[in-house]
Amino acid sequence: xxxxxxxxxxxxxxxxxxxxxxxxxxxxxxxxxxxxxxxxxxxxxxxxxxxxxxxxxxxxxxxxxxxxxxxxxxxxxxxxxxxxxxxxxxxxxxxxxxxxxxxxxxxxxxxxxxxxxxxxxxxxxxxxxxxxxxxxxxxxxxxxxxxxxxxxxxxxxxxxxxxxxxxxxxxxxxxxxxxxxxxxxxxxxxxxxxxxxxxxxxxxxxxxxxxxxxxxxxxxxxxxxxxxxxxxxxxxxxxxxxxxxxxxxxxxxxxxxxxxxxxxxxxxxxxxxxxxxxxxxxxxxxxxxxxxxxxxxxxxxxxxxxxxxxxxxxxxxxxxxxxxxxxxxxxxxxxxxxxxxxxxxxxxxxxxxxxxxxxxxxxxxxxxxxxxxxxxxxxxxxxxxxxxxxxxxxxxxxxxxxxxxxxxxxxxxxxxxxxxxxxxxxxxxxxxxxxxxxxxxxxxxxxxxxxxxxxxxxxxxxxxxxxxxxxxxxxxxxxxxxxxxxxxxxxxxxxxxxxxxxxxxxxxxxxxxxxxxxxxxxxxxxxxxxxxxxxxxxxxxxxxxxxxxxxxxxxxxxxxxxxxxxxxxxxxxxxxxxxxxxxxxxxxxxxx
Length: 592
Fold this sequence. Notes:
21 helices, Penicillin-binding protein 2a (Domain 2), 592 residues, alpha+beta
């Protein structure tokens, strides 16, 4: 019996010892796992408990005009953020923040959710905070666990020129927006990002790269101070943009357009540089670049004059008589005896049982092609299109860039519409459209739609005898150290082929529009400066006619081409031509 008892007790002893050994091995393995294998991971978590990385946003690139004058730069602004994990169980922090900022806790929580990018990362809740509020934050710092503030650069508009539709604006992005943007640029909720215009098109160049500073926090999440032995990571500012805009020409263009609804585009037809670009009505860039209230945003959006709409590249309009040079050039190249061909205008053109009127009800009498362009005789071109046909007219229009994007370096451009046989059959039905449609098209009415930028490019191509320089706003992209990152200079493309004689005829006829005895654009005439042009009056089913004037200068001092649109402005010769005349006279006076 005694022997059996010893055997049992020995077995139990070995079992206990084995279990203790196993537990000891597990403890050693876990210790190795925590301290050796995953040391770096848990060390970072431990560090995060007392070291907070505060993002330092990079300043966006500065935007200059062609002469180096600043148009847009940056100004410092205070931003308030919260650390979600640290305020989760401290409602008193949000209560105090709500009291200081006079914004409800519910709204603060909404902003936290909107801009949240992790439990430990700061979520921006207030931007452009005035300094007195920051002073209050400092006074109550011990009551604001998980609340921090920083300085970030915001857009500052220092120039007297407007240029709002071309420049565009920045806005804060949230988590829902992030999918639209390149991950290479490390966007985070609350960052400022280009949302419209040049700011959007060149956002990757303007954006820069964020930095970090490090502060120490205690167990309650309260900030103690900067960590001196951990070097901050300095932000890398974005590249600067040198625009083609001439601030003087831009300023006088804006003043000339004043409060009219319309657009003026002036470019250098030898380079494609946009010298002035105005769309009216416009909007306040300062308002849209910050946190705009719902009330102000709705007021802008519902304004019947539509100030947010960029008429220069988004507006689609019938071109009126500004497109008559298309048919004229085609006839010079392809129709026999085009220069001497005459038609008699008695004020209207009869087609079947319909009558199509000329703008001059008394008629122009017997006119040739030169006189038809100078006096903008509709009846002449009603006759001419019968020998051209829709397909050939549409083909030439597309060679001049109509019905397609110009490639301008701002987003949102519309390509317009050049109707051809396929389009007309699809819209009206095969064989259900008539020559009457053709008469409307040749004088820029009916289904034809263009943008002011396309017409400015058209004028430039007429000046350049078929060569096109792609329109652009940005001449250079330059780093902060002065290194040229990119130059926007492209070779001209020969898009329209015609003889020298045909181009010379077109120039002579368009000169007569401004300078001839019967020209429709006498108000654009300049002293000691020859101007070429074409007026247009586009019928508007929603009100008074739109007024157009396109033109160019071949003077080596002023290699300009332009398009002027005045919505509901009436006649092109009476309203649009005088407007560009005032602009050109101001330029000439400045150079005296």
